[in-house]
Amino acid sequence: MDAQVHELDALVVGAGFGGIYMLHKLRNEQGLDAVAIDKAGGVGGTWYWNKYPGALSDSESFVYQYSFDRDLYTDTPWKTKFVRQPEILEYLNGVVDRYELRDHIQLETGMVSAEFDESAGMWTVRTDRDVTYRSRFLVTGLGLLSATNLPKFPGMESFEGSLVHTGAWPEDLDVTGKRIGVIGNGSTGNQVITATAPIVGHLTSFQRTAQYSVPAGNRVLTEQEQQAIKDNFEANWDQVRNSGLAMGFVESTLEMGTVSDAERERIFEEAWNEGGGFCFMFKTFGDIATSEEANEEAAKFIRNKIAQIVTDPETARKLTPTDLYARRPLCDSGYYETFNRPNVSLVNVKENPITKVVDKGIVTADGTLHELDVLICATGFDAVDGNYVRTDIRGRNGQTLKEHWSDGPTSYLGVATSGFPNMFMILGPNGPFTNLPPSIETQVEWISDAIAHVLADGKEWIDVKPDVEHEWTETCIDIANQTLFPKSPSSWIFGANIPGKKRAVMFYLGGLKEYRTIGGAEAAAGYQSFATKADALTPVS
C-alpha cells in the first residue's frame, strides 16, 4: 500500500532545543501548517538520548535555556549552577506543552530521504513510517552530537554482557555492583566514569587520549543568586548576545604575559576553585586559545593539579596530557579523584591497545582479559554533518548532500548550503562555536524571518549562491587558523575522532556577537546572498 502523503508549509526534522523552538515560530507566530518529526520516542533531542549517569550541561543553568519568553524564563526552577539531564528533559517537555506543540510532533518517525522538486519548489520527505511529507520548506535540526560513533573492534558481536553507547543509553540499565568497562574519556566518558565509579563493582577506563579537565564546581545556588538571575534577565541576555561564547561571563582580554608568575597562578587557582571548563580557558586570560606560550602555562597548571590529586604515580602519568590544551574545555565532578578508588583501574590503549572483544570482556595487547558485565562506549559522535551524510538528501539536479560535501561540510552561516533550496539547517556546519541555546535561538529566528521573507515576496524558493558559501567556508578556516584548536590531533570539532574522516573546519569561531551582526546584515539587505528560482543560477554539477 502506498504511503500517506501529507502536504505542509514546513517540515521540521528533530525535536530538540532547535526543532521545538522552530515549530513554535512557524506554527504559533507565523500561522504556517508545520509539523516536526523525530525518530526518538520523546522530545528533547540530545537530552532524550543521553540518559547516561552523570549527564550534565557544561554551560551554566541560567544561560542553558530559552530566552525568547521572559515568563517561561521566570517560571524555570533550576537551582544548581549546572543542570542535569533529567531536569533539561523535563524542561523541554514542559516547553512543548506550554506552547501546545505536542499534537504537531510525530515521534518514532525518522527521515529516510529528502528530495527537492525544482519545478514544483517542494521537498518530498520519506520516513520510516507509512507517511511521506511534501513540504515547501524543510528545516533540519538533526543535532551536532547525535550520530553515534561506535568503535569497530574484532569480536564485538561475541560479547555476552550489555554493550551500550552513551548516546543511546537504555533506561532500564542498572550498573550497580557490576564490572564495567568505559571506552573513551572525553566529556561524556569523564561524566559517566565519575558518576558510576561509586556504585559499580569495578570500573576499567580504556583511555585513548589523556584529557585536561577542571572542576565543574556544581552547587546549589542561593535564593539570592536565583532571584538575581531572574531580576537581571535583560542585562544577562544582552551580555550573552554580545559576547563571543555566550556562556554568561565576560571573556578576558588580559594577556598572560602581562602579569607576574604569582598573579597568573592566583588567577588560575581562583578559576579552578570556582569551576567551569569554559571559565578556566576563557575567563582567566584572553590568549590561552591563541598563544602556545600562554596555552602551555594553563596546561602546566592542570598537569600539576593531576600530580597533586592522583596518588599512584603510574596512574597519574597515564592521566596527564602532554599535548596542547586545545579541545572543547572539559569540567568534572571529581574525575581525577575517581582514579584513587580501589575499584577503578586505567588502561592506556595507546600503550596497550585493545586487540579484540570476547564473550567475557576485552583483551588488550599484553594478553590481559578484562572481564566485564557491561561495556560502555563513550566514543562520541560523527559530529555536525554525521546525520546529514547518513541520510539520502537530494537537492537541485539530484545532487546528494553527501556529494556536495565530499571535500568536507560547507554552508553559509551554518543555516543554508548551496544547491538545496528552501532547506535550512539549525546548527549546520560552520555555525557558531558557543553555548548552544543562544546560538539555536539566533538561527531559528533568522530562519523564521527568511521563510517569512520568501512568502511575503512571492518567491518559490531561495538558494544560497555558491560563491557566498565558499567565502563563508574560507572565513571559518581563516578564523580557526588564528587559534590553536586545529592543532589538536583528535578533536571532534574538526572531525578528527572518526577514522578515515577528512579533517575539516566545522565551526565559526568568530563569536556570537559578530555572527549575529553578519546574519542581521544579510536579512536587512534582503538576502542578497541568495538566488531565487527566477534568477540565473549556475547549474549544480
From TrEMBL:
Keywords: FAD, Flavoprotein, NADP, Oxidoreductase. InterPro entries: FAD-binding_Monooxygenases, FAD/NAD-bd_sf, Flavin_mOase-like. Gene3D superfamilies: FAD/NAD(P)-binding domain. It comes from the Bacteria. One of its GO terms (molecular function) is flavin adenine dinucleotide binding. Belongs to the FAD-binding monooxygenase family. This is NAD(P)/FAD-dependent oxidoreductase. It comes from Antrihabitans stalagmiti.
